[in-house]
Amino acid sequence: MAGSEGPLKGVKVLDLSRILAGPTCTQLLGDLGASVIKIENPSTGGDDTRQWGPPYVEDAQGNRSDLSAYFMSANRNKKSVAIDITTPQGQSEIKRLASHADILIENFKPGGLAKYGLDYASLSPEFPSLVYCSISGYGQTGPNASKPGYDLMAQGYGGIMSLTGEPDGAPMKVGVGIADVMCGMYASVGILAALRHRDQTGEGQQIDLALVDAQIAWLINEGVNYLTSGNVPQRRGNGHPNIVPYDVYETADGHVILAVGNDSQFRRFCEFIKCPDLADDPRFATNPARLDHRDALNAVLRPAVKTYSSETIIAQLEARKVPVGPVQTLDQVFATDQVESRQMQIAMQAAPGDVQLIGNPLKLSRTPVTYRAAPPVCGADTQAVLSAENPFDD
Hints:
The chain has helices at 21-31, 69-72, 88-100, 120-123, 151-157, 160-163, 178-201, 211-217, 220-229, 263-272, 287-292, 294-305, 310-319, 330-333, 337-341, 382-387; strands at 12-16, 35-40, 56-58, 64-68, 79-82, 103-106, 131-136, 205-210, 246-250, 255-259, 324-326, 345-349, 354-358. The termini are close together. The longest helix has 24 residues, at 178-201. The protein is α/β, with parallel strands linked by helices. The radius of gyration is 25 Å and the shape is elongated. The protein has two domains: 12-218 and 337-387, 3-Layer(aba) Sandwich (Rossmann fold); 255-326, 2-Layer Sandwich (formyl-coa transferase, domain 3). It has a six-stranded parallel β-sheet with strand order 5-2-1-6-7-8, sandwiched between helices. Strands 9-10-11 form a three-stranded antiparallel β-sheet, with helices on one face.
């Protein structure tokens, strides 16, 4: 990790988190230049996600490493240090690392670190400038504080599953662990805000962040739709609650996305599908009217769109400045020149061999993100870190 750069160069992060929310946060901080030491339990083989495979990275002889694809998705730009925090020696080692750290992040159950003297109340008197981020399922307070938190449970409890899926189908989770990922995003924002306060005042603080709170926060328009109207939103498949047509439509050879955001776009769309009269029909002339007559409009649009190939409808609507796009599989996504141009797929050299990872979307003109170290095997940096005078030195 020599030569690390970035806007967070010099910031030191002690990462006691595992699985996805915390590691997503600390990978982002690492990409931005922070030095991150990831603590892993040697008796369990480290972060749980190391066992969440296949697929795994294999060495040249075909031997499986502990680098699962899941683990690698959130753990580059970190050093892995194996410490058993249940032992006095392990607790002493964590406190020594904390003495050098600017930030500590953990996702144990509320109170889970108190018995080891590693909770915020125990550490803050000794390290008053420490920014301490605690991630849990339901937060440090409230009637559900003691319950475990997992992405699927947060999606269910927080309401997003009730909005996702076909109208007559079962509640459906999002295809990736989005509650965890968004919680990690909120954590990084909170940490940077607390770090700003620390730099101005010298005062650290605890950040109390719940998966469920973060999930509820990103209900966004549907959440406020309910709070404003009192009407419980219903599942609409890929349909939009406030815009029509804004949906996935079947074509002659696949599917396309139509996102007709205003009345002039709707008129141009109707002209293309040879149904110009729809734009003058009082039921469909305005977006509020189209919302009221969603089913009647789709009864006309769906068979009309199905007469065109995906390629034709995308090309023709793009030419008419009507928002339209493909529904791509991941092989198509990563084969696009857009992904190549934006460096959204990157190659790194890990201990067992080359790995392919998803790039960071942040493009900073002065202090770009850096990819300094591939995801580590469990405990790879234990000896070097624990024997160093300054363990966060790159």
